[in-house]
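Reviewer has doubts. Consider these tokens.
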Amino acid sequence: VAHFPIKVDATPPKQFQVVVDNGGDPTNPSPILKINAADETSGIVQYEIKIGNNTSFLVNRDDVKGGQYTLPPQEPGTHEVLVKAIDRAGNFTPAAVTVTIEPIDAPTIVDYSKRISQGDQLIIRGISYPNVTVYVYIEKNVKKTAAVASKELAATIVSSGKTKTDENGNFEYIELQDLDRSVYSVFAVAEDERGA
């Protein structure tokens, strides 16, 4: 009877850092994570990534080319990212990094129908980045309930839609819904091809 020693890898990967590279653009919704993890015993096989309170997901080692992984598009804001480097034996070492994504500038509304009669269309014109989608929101200003002892107005979105800017960043939005007699506010947000 021969006896052979069996080595079990109980050593987790070495401590590592994650560095965020947004390519010099703070509005980049998909920055690159630079991951320098290493495991000398059995090797890294995958990474587990958790962004904020979202469900974690696994990324194969082959998808982290040259130690770089591009995040899926994220909303503007600050996101805590936890990366676990996992070796063949299932041992892991975590590293955390904060990712901050700034929003792109909001569109500027330069002209709109100041007063409309029943049956008229509300036309809104503005400027933003070239070739982006502009989301337009129309709010109806209504008095707060009697329980609130003030004359402040509370806004309720009554309609929304989207349009595209031209190559110069100009846009026009025509509201097709009939609006009741009231006071309305309009605001717009832009989204580029990256999802920012």
Remarks:
- The first strand starts at residue 18 and ends at 21.
- The chain has a mean pLDDT of 89.
- The two ends are 66 Å apart (CA to CA).
- The chain has no helices and 13 strands.
